[in-house]
Every structure is written in C-alpha cells, then in structure tokens.
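DNA-(apurinic or apyrimidinic site) lyase structure dump, as promised
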Amino acid sequence: MPEGDTVWQAAHRLDEALAGRVLTRADLRVPRFATADLTGRTVLDVTPRGKHLLTRIEGGLTLHSHLRMDGAWRVYPTGERPRGGPEHQIRAVLGNERSTAYGYRLPVLELIRTAEESRVVGHLGPDLLGPDWDPEEAVRRLLADPSRPLGEVLLDQRVLAGIGNVYKSELAFLAAVTPWLPVGELAPEVPPRLVATAHRLLEANKDRPDRRTTTVRRPGTPLHVYGREGRPCLRCGAAVRRAELGDRVTYWCPACQRGPRGDSPDPRRPRHEGSGDPRRPQD
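structure tokens r here:
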C-alpha cells in the first residue's frame, strides 16, 4: 500500500498536469459514474489527504480516489499512448489539451460533492503532510488505547494519516521498540519524539524519487529494517527478523528493539527482549 509521501507525489503530479485547465476528456469507468460528464469544467486542484486523493472540479465536485495496494495515476502528454498497464485496468481518464491522467486499478473511485468531502476523509487523524498538521493531537490519538500494539496504532489512519507498512517498521526501529509493544508501555518521551520523526521523514521523502530513512550512504541501505530480513542490522549487525502483525508483514531488529516479538507464541509475552533503549536519541 502506498505511503503518505507516495500519495503526496501523485497528487503533486496530477495537480501540475490538471489544475487550472479545462477538461477536454473525462471518462469514469465505474458503473455508478459512467455517465457523468465533466468535460468543459476546470480542475481546481488535486489535494492529498492522508492516503486519499481529492481532485476538485469546477461546479462543486470532487473526484475521490484511493490507491490501496496497487492503484496508480499516470500522466502522459495528450495524444501519447498510456503505458501504465493493460487498457482494461484503466478506471479513470482526465485530460486537457496538454496532459492526460490515467487512473489504473483504482479500488476506490467516486464523484462526490466537494462540500461532502468530510464523509470520505473526516475520520482521518492529523495528516502528516497536511497544512493543518497537529503533533499534540497526534500524540493524544497515539496513546488513546494503551493496550494496542504500536505497529497496529501506526497503521490506523484515524490516528495518523499517511503511515503505511514501510514507515511502521522504520518508526518502531527508530523508537528502539518492537511493533508489538503496547503503546501504554512506551516511555513518556517516546510518543512525541516518534510523532516528530514520522513528520520529519515524510516531509523529507515527499520530494525524493527514492524513500530513505537512514543516513547510511552505502548502496542498498536506504531503510533500516523494512525488506531486510536476514540481513545485518545497520546499527548492531544482528540479523533483521520478519513476522506478521495482523495481516501485515513486519520487520524488526531483535537486538536493537525491546518488547514483545512477533515470532513468539504470544507476541505480548516475549521469549526474549532486545537490548535497545527506547530513550536513546534517534538517527
């Protein structure tokens, strides 16, 4: 599933291609909206909200889309053949005299009134890349249920909007705790520091072609633990582990991160705790 920085980049590309221009082509390939005619209307802006994309159109309309696991928007010069996948995977086409955007494999695509956007994004927590980012509210929501595992809370978009599976694993590593540790067991200084780190990382990566959470410049080391099962931890050298947290794969270092382990019979009752200290400064 795309992370908030990826969605921000998609919104930026769409906004550059469509905003301020009149639609000369508009094709929504979902039965409910297949007859909607948006041609002749001006696209006002394309705004990300967490992992949601809101394309606002003249006349008080918003095209709401969500990429989920493998959706994508691709932009090509008008008249150029799209190459984002087979034709039957295209669910939306928005074009003007200069550029045309194609929405591939979009699991969520609906046309709503702009005044009703809260219906689809009003449940979201503070947006890590939004103009109204509120770190204090983010911390409050993070700690609202002390019994929930940290990794589960980080993926809950009602808590923080924009964190996906990659940042979940990376943030737990940087906090030196396992993703299975209940948030109520975090040291008092960890939640605000973790929230600040999440904001800093997404802000830093929203303009980068390749996501990076480390300061290590060796090839193949942009991330601390995600996708690095069996490889040495960049900090201590221990083998990075992989396990499931709910229905998501999770990566962690058994030496640097303290707390319950996902490969234990009961992750809330660990067989071993790492030597990491959640109070130490982060990278």
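Helices lie at 4-18, 118-121, 135-142, 150-155, 165-174, 190-205.
lmk if u need the other ones
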